[in-house]
Description:
Helices cover 42% and strands 14% of the residues. By secondary structure, the chain is α/β, with parallel strands linked by helices. The chain has a single domain, classed as 3-Layer(aba) Sandwich (Rossmann fold). Strand 1, helix 1 and strand 2 form a beta-alpha-beta unit. This is NAD(P)-dependent dehydrogenase (Short-subunit alcohol dehydrogenase family). It comes from Ottowia thiooxydans.
Amino acid sequence: MTTPTQLLKDKVVIVTGAGGGVGKGVALEAARQGARVVVNDLGVSLNGESSGSSPAEEVVAEIKAAGGQAIADGGSVAEWESASGIVERAVSTFGRIDAVVHSAGILRDSIFHKMTPSDFETVMRVHLFGAFNMARAAAGHFREQNSGALVHMTSTAGLIGSVGQANYAAAKMGIVGLSRSISMDMARFGVRSNCIAPHAFSRMIESVPGLSPEEQERYLEKRRQTTRPEQIAPLAVFLCSDAAKDVTGQIFGARGNEVYLYNQPRPVRTLHRSEGWTPGTLAEMLVPAFQSSFTPAERTKNVLGWEAI
Length: 309
């Protein structure tokens, strides 16, 4: 499994949620680029229930058939002990760890007033706690070797907005803050941390709130054709490589053949009153001054209105 210019030659990469979808695409591309890959997948359905299969083993077989090196791992990212075990397994098998791509995720969609505490916590644990657990478990190894890369999957559900996904959106925005903080705390050790907001047809978009069955099928068929998981993989692999040594603390998007950079929150307007503010003076002045700069409550499809190609 060799190519003329392998960006990840001799590196060891963990990819969580790599049994299918975006994670699988990243694992396969990382192997093509010379990495030894830990293919982590719990083998669960979209809502986190056991599927009784071992998709990680299937991906490992595919990598090995192409001449690459990989091992399967069925540990949960949601618990610290298990996540730590994933990293230690990579180190004990391959001798080091160079990058972690956290792609594992589940959905428990619900309109907010019907969302249960359990559904909120379960999604947070896989996405946000999982991102922390994997990054923290790798941090000590990265510090010792003075290098390392983290790639976290965020989502436009958090960056822009989505209906019926408050748990998922909260977790994905939490990942953005986590990644930004890691990029600052770990910079002195040569460690980079970035986010990708992927648009790709995978299990994570099979559940689309607010569409009729006919509308959903038309939507999914279009997404199958124009946004494929393997189109996300090159960006993730690049961010794991030494070629991205100067890239950290950023949020990227990948949709079809497009790659884009997201802005990050900064003040856009200021309002000053020398004698200070009262609720009444704010009521009088704030809305007229700021309203033209308010961010509309738009959904992703309204903001990214052009077709993916």
